[in-house]
């Protein structure tokens, strides 16, 4: 057999080579450069002029997943599932990868690597979709080691390889911490000897790389004749401040108040009363946070705790302008993540809205405890609450400070 590749380390070519090694098959690897693609020999064996291309004694095969499954069949059906149901599920995940995951992933990677001119709106949409797809994957992997059955299948190889570029550049440590099932599964897939042999060690990123986005030109207006004016001195443009940095000074000292409140014996009563008296209401606001679950989330307490802890860890950069409590509420299998926070400013800070990778999955509501008794009760229940207390009508399973 001969395996023709244009770029041996690209995902499609690497995928075919990984499957070949996993299945104990061998083929001559031929690098098909531009000159070879002009030859009659090449034109006689290709149908689509796409790579990888596998030449066998029975004919030629295109498309990496078809070639990967061919190697599995040569190995007696290894990695293709134990029964008809599992074989269909493997096809299902490969199809999901090709039609759902890949279209979002490739746009994100094109922007990060500068492979194509990607507009900001397209990058934002695809990056949001990519995270939502990974979230679906994380839910499916709850209590499972592999996508299908009890053993690694070709579906695990396909999906993990197509995710590998995003894992190394965009899906950062904070996001993966919240997606613990996917993170563990990906680490296991990337540690397979055949994967290491073909593509080397895959190191997932701690922080996301910034995309290289297309510069969108504004439509030019027709120039109108104007009288010559004296030249004005050019002003040095300052970097725009975020919505917290641009606020006027506040009289409320959050740092010292945290110490006072955390050590007060009556956190639901006198401590809150004092809080209301000291607070600069024009420079701060209370907010209620509610995590918008996907189907299949909130089923197990330890998984939901990990999801909450990941969110809090990724918010550490705003601990000088935010203070509050986050809690896992309710009973299995219908747990919720909610919180009450004090935040600088009267609108949500950019540090959460623009810089926190999980904040987009939270519904928020500004609280008005001075005029709304229910909001006042909510603040006292959360900020003064502990494990086992009732919060927002539900029992608190796990309560965490954010300070």
Labels describing this entry:
alpha+beta; Glutaredoxin; Glutathione S-transferase Yfyf (Class Pi), Chain A, domain 2; Alpha-Beta Plaits; 3 domains
Written overview of the protein:
By secondary structure, the chain is an alpha+beta fold. The protein folds into 3 domains: 73 residues, Glutaredoxin, CATH 3.40.30; 116 residues, Glutathione S-transferase Yfyf (Class Pi), Chain A, domain 2; 149 residues, Alpha-Beta Plaits (2-Layer Sandwich), CATH 3.30.70. Helix content is 41%, strand content 15%. The protein has 14 helices and 10 strands. The strands form 2 sheets. Strands 8-5-7-6-10-9 form a 6-stranded antiparallel sheet, sandwiched between helices. α1 links the parallel β1 and β2. α1 crosses α6, α1 crosses α9 and α6 packs across α8. The longest helix has 30 residues. The N and C termini lie far apart (62 Å). 33% of the residues are buried. The mean pLDDT is 90.
């Amino acid at each position: 057999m001969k395996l023709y590749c244009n770029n041996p380390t690209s995902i499609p070519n690497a995928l075919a080579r990984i499957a070949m090694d996993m299945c104990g098959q061998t083929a001559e690897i031929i690098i098909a450069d531009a000159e070879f693609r002009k030859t009659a020999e090449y034109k006689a064996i290709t149908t689509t002029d796409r790579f990888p291309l596998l030449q066998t004694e029975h004919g030629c095969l295109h498309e990496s997943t078809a070639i990967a499954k061919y190697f599995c069949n040569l190995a007696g059906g290894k990695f293709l599932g134990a029964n008809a149901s599992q074989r269909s599920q493997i096809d299902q995940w490969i199809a999901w990868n090709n039609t759902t995951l890949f279209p979002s992933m490739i746009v994100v990677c094109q922007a990060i690597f500068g492979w194509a001119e990607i507009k900001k709106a397209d990058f934002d949409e695809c990056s949001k979709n990519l995270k939502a797809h990974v979230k679906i994957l994380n839910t499916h992997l709850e209590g499972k080691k592999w996508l299908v059955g009890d053993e690694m299948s070709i579906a695990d190889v396909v999906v993990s390889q197509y995710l590998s570029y995003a894992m190394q550049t965009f899906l950062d440590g904070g996001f993966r911490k919240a997606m613990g099932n996917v993170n563990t599964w990906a680490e296991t897939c990337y540690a397979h000897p055949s994967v290491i042999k073909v593509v080397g060690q895959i190191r997932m990123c701690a922080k996301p790389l910034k995309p290289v986005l297309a510069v969108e030109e504004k439509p030019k207006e027709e120039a109108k004749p104007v009288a010559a004016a004296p030249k004005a001195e050019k002003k040095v443009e300052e970097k725009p401040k975020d919505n917290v940095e641009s606020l006027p000074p506040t009289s409320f000292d959050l740092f010292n108040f945290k110490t006072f409140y955390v050590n007060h014996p009556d956190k639901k009563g006198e401590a809150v009363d004092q809080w209301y008296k000291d607070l600069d209401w024009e420079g701060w606001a209370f907010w209620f946070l509610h995590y918008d679950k996907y189907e299949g989330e909130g089923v197990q307490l330890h998984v939901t705790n990990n999801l909450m802890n990941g969110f809090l860890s990724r918010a550490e950069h705003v601990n000088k302008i935010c203070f509050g409590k986050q809690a896992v509420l309710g009973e299995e299998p219908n747990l919720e993540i909610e919180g009450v926070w004090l935040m600088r400013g009267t609108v949500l800070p950019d540090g959460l809205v623009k810089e926190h990778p999980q904040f987009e999955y939270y519904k928020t509501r500004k609280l008005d405890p001075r005029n709304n008794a229910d909001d006042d009760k909510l603040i006292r229940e959360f900020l003064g609450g502990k494990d086992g207390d009732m919060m927002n009508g539900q029992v608190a399973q796990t309560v965490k400070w954010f300070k």
